[in-house]
Amino acid sequence: MAGIKSSTVGVKRRIRNAPIERTNVHSLKLVKNYICQDTIDALEYLLYEARKGELIGLVYGGMHKHHSCIVDAVGAGYRDPLFALGVANLLTDVIATRARNDESHD
Question: With contact defined as beta carbons under 8 Å apart, do 57 and 50 qualify?
Fold first, then answer.
């Protein structure tokens, strides 16, 4: 926006005095810089299924090594957004369960 400048002059920062609750803090696992054979195998399987005509759409998310990501829906996943949302919700549930199980091992 032209003509609008952002400034922090005169703004007081609030400092949290209470300790951070451990239940709200999650550690991040660093992704190592390597070629992931599991990823290659999964993509080859999906391609095989698509070429057979069994896989008619995708809802996907991919993680790049520099902490960026790509998400999209193609085929039936693009044409039928409600079906795509259902698939995405199933994926969310599976990953959330896996994350909860990983945290219980800490």
Answer: no
Per-domain boundaries in the chain: 57-106
94 HSE (CA, 13 A, CB side):
6
Give the distance between the most distant pair of CA atoms in the chain: 65
Note the pTM of the prediction, 2 decimals.
Answer: 0.62
pLDDT for 55 equals 98
The Cβ of residue 5 has, within 10 Å, a number of other Cβ atoms equal to 5
Q: How far apart are CA 48 and CA 77, in angstroms?
A: 18
Tell which residue, 70, 64, 55, has the closest CA to residue 36: 64
Tens digits of residue pLDDT in 6-58: 444 444 444 444 444 545 455 556 556 678 999 999 999 999 999 999 999 99
